[in-house]
Amino acid sequence: MKTTIIGLGLIGGSIALGLRKSGLATELIGVDMNSTNAMKAVELGLVDKILLEDEAIAKADLIIVAIPVNALHAFLPAVLDAVKKDAVVIDSGSTKGLICKSVSNHPKRSQFVAAHQIAGTENSGPTAAFHGLFKGKTNIICEASKSSEQALARARQVF
To answer: Given 7, 82, 92, 117, which residue has the most CB atoms within 10 angstroms?
Structure first.
């Protein structure tokens, strides 16, 4: 499946590595506000290419949003605005109040899975990403009743 990772640091990069190793992602597209991080993510093989966010979102079957929570709640509605009809959006934010509230009335809310992967290190950026970060870790899905069965099935497959 074509996958877009928004935020190519420790969490986003580690998710990308897992998706690549599992074979779930046929193509990994990266988006990062920091052009140095974006190019480093390609160099490290975390993603296949970098695209502008609108194009990257529109092409994807799966979108992982792994950006800081303070930016995520403001950014997420625009992601849902841009996704195609059957695409699934999963976030990795650690707190959910503002995130879930920001999309509570969005017409594509059912395509979103609010998730929190309880994993991490003190390091950041694409060079901090590693395969196995999430192995044996807890992953919480929030507001599952607001996500479609298709979105939940895809999220469980990813996790």
So the answer is: 7
